[in-house]
Amino acid sequence: MATTTRIAPGSSQSSPAAIPLLNRRPLLAICVGVGVVLLALSGRHGYHVDELYNRATREHLAWGYVDQPPLVSLIARAETTVLGDTLTALRVVPALLACVVVWVAALIARELGGRGGAQLFAAAAASASVVTLNAGHVLTTNIPDLVTWVTVGWLVIRLLRTQDTRLWIAVGAVTGVGLLAKNLIVLLLLALLVGVLAMGPRAVLRSRHLWVGAALATLISAPAVLWQVTHGWPAMEMSAALKTALGEDSRVAFVPFQVLMIGLFLTPVWIAGVVALLRRAQWRAFRSVGLSYLFMAVLLIAIGGKPEYTGGLQLVLLAAGSVVVVEWANTTVRRTLAGTALVGNAVMSAVLMLPVLPVALYGSNPVLKGLGVFQMDQAAWPQLAEQVGTVNRSLSPPDRAHAVIYANHYGLAGALDRYGPEHGLPHVYSGQNSYADFGRPADDTDVVIAVGVNRTTFGALFTSCEPSGKFRTDLPVADQDTEFLVCRGPLEPWSQLWPKLTWIGFQCPYTAEAITAKSEKGCSLT
Question: What's the pTM?
Answer without folding.
Answer: 0.90
